[in-house]
Amino acid sequence: MAGKKNDAEGAETKGGKLGGKKLVVVAALGALLLAGGTGGGVFLLTKGDSASAAAVEEEEHLVPGDVTALDPITLNLADGRYLKLGIALQGVHTEGGGHGGSSGPDGSKALDLAISTFSGAKMADLSSPEQRQAFKDDLQAKIVEAYTEEAEEEGEKPHKTVMGIYFTQFVMQ
Fold it and tell me: What are the residue boundaries of the structural domains of the chain, listed by start?
């Protein structure tokens, strides 16, 4: 069967032609490319929801600013174990330098959210890299939301001051 290729090796099947499902995937990818730039691709991927498209566009234009490392904290886990957790906040670069002489966002909101997120966890919940990443993603979403400032005047976009987090320490005992 010299005319066939394994699906893992390529898109050819009997006689060198694309299968029905693969043809649809290739056509969809081609349509995305022809949509012109990221705006068209975002529009197609969000099924025309302009609010979702605007949110994706805003995320792409955020410029990383300073990283603020917070002092590590020690948390009691649910099973009587301990977690020493260090977090750094990835700020968003703003034109004009931000809020006066502030050297970065106040970490109290982030630490409070870390305590509430990890205090209910067990050591077994945090032992695998996949589960640890899931907890980190959850915490990051909560922190970014907490540090998103709503504009005082109607019609203005919310302003993000933190766009991500890093774990600087993660020690369980």
Answer: 14-59, 62-172
Q: What is the pLDDT of residues 45-54, one digit of tens each?
A: 444 444 444 4
Chain centroid to Cα 121, Å, comes to 21
Segment (H or E) for 90: strand 82-92
- What is the CATH class of 62-172? alpha beta
β-pair partners for 149: 159
Q: What is the pTM of this model?
A: 0.59
Q: Which residues of 3-40 are buried (b: 16+ CB within 10 A; e: fewer)?
A: eeeeeeeeebbeeeeeeeeeeeeeeeeeeeeeeeeeee
The predicted-structure confidence for 54-79, as pLDDT tens digits, reads as follows 444 455 577 888 899 999 999 999 99
